[in-house]
Amino acid sequence: DTEVTQTPKHLVMGMTNKKSLKCEQHMGHRAMYWYKQKAKKPPELMFVYSYEKLSINESVPSRFSPECPNSSLLNLHLHALQPEDSALYLCASSPSGLAGSTDTQYFGPGTRLTVL
Amino acid sequence: KNEVEQSPQNLTAQEGEFITINCSYSVGISALHWLQQHPGGGIVSLFMLSSGKKKHGRLIATINIQEKHSSLHITASHPRDSAVYICAVGKMGQKLVFGQGTRLTINP
């Protein structure tokens, strides 16, 4: 299995809803990432987990809450989002736990989130 | 000024043409990545370079560390190469810094 999967593919939620995005990889990768991407912009890093521990938090608002239950799974819990949070949310993983830019990152297809 | 600059921002070419996309960066790096993003979202890592040149099929990536410059070349371009190509750089243990991307359209 050489892919990163993300569910759901699309999500529409209201500002009072609570929802979760899920990411899974079975490549034995030790680092996992959440990115946010607005239209026609490059991805912006949100969080990095290295060996299942949060290693980078890019000052993301607390309405986004990451969770890494095990080495294969990464969740992003969403609560009280704003319309400007509408974006493509990409998950990625990389083999080593260095969680940095000297490792190839494998991206999932993304979840397209719309906040009404 | 962005730490990573790509040129051109948009490129339209005819099928079969030789394509070059450039990336310049202003910081010291451990590695440079070329990524491809098709409409619909998914990103594929094409190359990771720290020196020299790499080739995969019709794609060639080069890097000149002294000049802080990299190029991505596509030979015999095809409409399926139409995508956004993103250059990203960084140091070990640090996050990637992305360029703004080059939108490539190959017409049949």
Structure write-up:
The complex is a heterodimer of chains A (about 120) and B (about 110). Chain A is mainly beta. Helices cover about 0% and strands about 55% of the residues of chain A. Chain A has strands spanning about 5, 10-15, 20-25, 30-35, 45-50, 55, 65-70, 75-80, 85-95, 105, 110-115. In chain A, strands 2, 4, 5, 6, 9, 10 and 11 form a seven-stranded mixed β-sheet that branches. In chain A, strand 7 (about 65-70) and strand 8 (about 75-80) form a beta hairpin. Chain B is built from no helices and eleven strands. Chain B has strands spanning about 5, 10-15, 20-25, 30-35, 45-50, 50-55, 60-65, 70-75, 85-90, 95-100, 100-105. In chain B, strands 2, 4, 5, 9, 10 and 11 form a six-stranded mixed β-sheet that branches. In chain B, a hairpin with a 5-residue loop joins strand 4 and strand 5. Classes of the chains: A mainly beta (about 120), B mainly beta (about 110). The interface of A and B includes residues 43, 103 and 106 of A.
Counted beta strands of chain B: 11
- Largest beta-sheet characterization of chain B: 6 strands, mixed
Radius of gyration based on Cα positions of chain A: 13 Å
SSE string of chain A, helix = H, strand = E? EEEEEEEEEEE
Tally of helical runs of chain A: 0
Shape of chain B: globular
**Mean pLDDT over the residues of chain B:** 94
The dominant shape of chain A is globular
Reading the helices and strands of chain B in chain order gives EEEEEEEEEEE
Secondary-structure-derived class of chain A: mainly beta
Largest interface: A-B, 26 and 27 residues
- First-residue to last-residue Cα separation of chain A: 36 Å
Quick summary:
The complex is a heterodimer of chains A (116) and B (108). Chain A is mostly beta strands and 116 residues long.
Mind sketching the topology for me?
The complex is a heterodimer of chains A (116) and B (108).
Chain A: E1 4-7, E2 10-13, E3 18-25, E4 31-37, E5 44-50, E6 53-57, E7 64-70, E8 73-79, E9 87-94, E10 106-107, E11 111-115
Parallel strand pairs in A: 2-11
Antiparallel strand pairs in A: 1-3, 3-8, 4-5, 4-9, 5-6, 7-8, 9-10, 9-11
Chain B: E1 4-7, E2 10-14, E3 19-25, E4 31-37, E5 43-49, E6 52-56, E7 59-64, E8 69-74, E9 83-90, E10 97-98, E11 102-107
Parallel strand pairs in B: 2-11
Antiparallel strand pairs in B: 1-3, 3-8, 4-5, 4-9, 6-7, 7-8, 9-10, 9-11
